[in-house]
Amino acid sequence: MSLIREKNLTKKNFRVYNYIAYDENGLRYAGLMEAVSIKEAERILRSGGYKNIKIRELPKWQYYFISLFTKLSKQEVMLFTRQVAEMLKAGFPVARLFDVIALSTNNKKLALICLVIKENLKSGNAISTALQRYTDVFSPVYISLIKIGEKTGQLFDIMEELAKYQEEEFKVRSKFISSLVYPIFVLLITFLIVWGLIVFIFPKLFEIMQGFDAPIPLLTHILLAISSVLSNPFIMSIGFSGLLFFALFFKLFNEISPSFKQSVEKLLFSIPYFGNILHKIYELRFARALLLLLRSGMSFLEGLRNLEQSFDSGVMKEAAIKIQRYLKEGDYLSVALHKSGFFSPFFIDMVKTGEETGELDRMLTKLCENLEFEIRARIDTLLSLFEPFLVVFLGLVVGLILFAVFLPIASIIGTVVKM
Predict the structure, then answer these.
(1) What confidence tens digit (pLDDT) does each residue in 362-378 have?
(2) pLDDT at 3 over 50
(3) Can you give the pLDDT at residue 5?
(4) Do the Cβ atoms of 48 and 111 come closer than 8 Å?
(5) Rounded to whole angstroms, how far apart are CA atoms 153 and 5?
(6) What is the dihedral of CA 329, 334, 337, 339, to 10 degrees?
(7) 290: nearest Cα among 277, 307, 276
(8) Could you give the angle at the alpha carbon of 354 between the alpha carbons of 348 and 356, nearest 5°?
(9) Which burial class, exposed, middle or buried, applies to 264 when counting CB atoms under 10 A from its CB (0-12, 13-18, 19+)?
(10) What is the rounded CA–CA span in Å between residue 112 and residue 32?
(11) pTM of the predicted model, to two decimals?
């Protein structure tokens, strides 16, 4: 299902419509889009080659609920930005550019965004004006930088910098996520093996032991109780339903409560070693954002105001707000960073050196390279420590199960010997 989101519907006078339409090959498409009226929505769809269009207005409460769980991914925005940058570099006319992307992409929500941009260009509006409808897809700093590029005639340079920024962000995020895939996969396999031993193997062994008049050790009783719980479909279904409900509730609360999200982040920062890696990743994101603002020509004060709304991290939002306040009081950027209490001494010293030498661009670039190298090294170290830890953990679990099996066997042998 396609979805194009916008938070401030009443403010911008946009309405959300559910549409059904068919392309020239007769394929059916359905999704959500935003427009001022049904006529505008129909015009946008027809400009994309859609026919037999049916549109109805969606209730705002229903749209809000769906929008919490459906987003255009950062990777898709990154690919869109790179496409625009490369096509501008190749000399594509701006009006034609978005039409080509709309026709070539398999992502229908992105295609509709391109059609809206094309319609705005036909009406004499700027690209940034069209993007203001989709502040959940394109961040305020993204829109502001494009606006600067349009005013200065440097749209290609801005799009190129935005594409590089997003690609570097994606690279670090992918490295971090991929480093978690292996441990989670191994832990899942370990859990399934242990679950199979406890649910299927252990009860059968106990049935054999019951034929002997021998006392059952406490550890064996505990494993039997766990086995009865894990093999009960009703209890397991309640447990999985509870976990699913908790996950949905956590996601919803994380979306609507910035203070809760910030508390979760601070809790993650407190985890030994892992928290340090996460803190370095946040510092890297901030350094790249500052470098992007510097190269675009936007003032740090204006840029931080946009970044404050762009960051999906409560901790980074708080840091951006504090830095803005200190910059307004006349402090240098390095002093403001220090007063925010979030950045490491190395981060602050690099920015300070850049300010004193007039080479802030070069120092921020070096800072990003250093942080990226340090993050990779720490993640590799964490993975190398995880493997022996997992072997020990698995050995302890299997050892406990074997111990619970052999204790009653030893008791049975003792009873037989006495007889």
Answers:
(1) 999 999 999 989 988 88
(2) no
(3) 36
(4) yes
(5) 29
(6) -60
(7) 307
(8) 100
(9) middle
(10) 9
(11) 0.68
